[in-house]
Design goal:
Blueprint: H1 25-40, H2 44-51, H3 57-72, H4 74-84, H5 94-109, H6 115-130, H7 132-151, E1 161-162, E2 169-170
Antiparallel strand pairs: 1-2
Amino acid sequence: MKDGSLKDGSGKREPGKRPAPKPSGARVRAVEALRKVLESGRPAAPLVGEVARGLSPADADLLRELVLGVLRWKAGLDAEIAAVSRIPLKKLAPNLREILEVALYQLRHLDRIPPYAAVSEAVTHARASGGEGASKLVNGVLRGFFFFRVRSSRRPMPPPRRSRGTSRIRPFWSSAG
């Protein structure tokens, strides 16, 4: 079956049908790690180390960046997702919420990942975990993000503010500062 043949061994595929792609390991594991952190309340850093076993160093670094970045920017990511999603965040399936957060974090904060790759991986992951309806929802929300971003006069999000007297960076929505 390596050649894409059907189960019946005929060697012919239905026209227009391609084998379903699998989402990348780092992004899938990032969603898994986020779910574990949010459900159990465990510290993220040691959990990321456990989940990263077996990944290449580059993928382990991406996993770490995704998990810690999503946790750092979670409130802002959730606000943006809520602004374009037709389904309230509390009603989203837990995996879909994390898939959207990981994809949006990549779009907003990682300049080395092309937007089409982040969206494609998120849609593929949603399809694998929740079916066609889930993939359409993720695709619609991420496309809505682009539409919303373009419609809002193309202004980028303001950079994080620094709190007074410390070197700690605070997100722009933080009331302190």
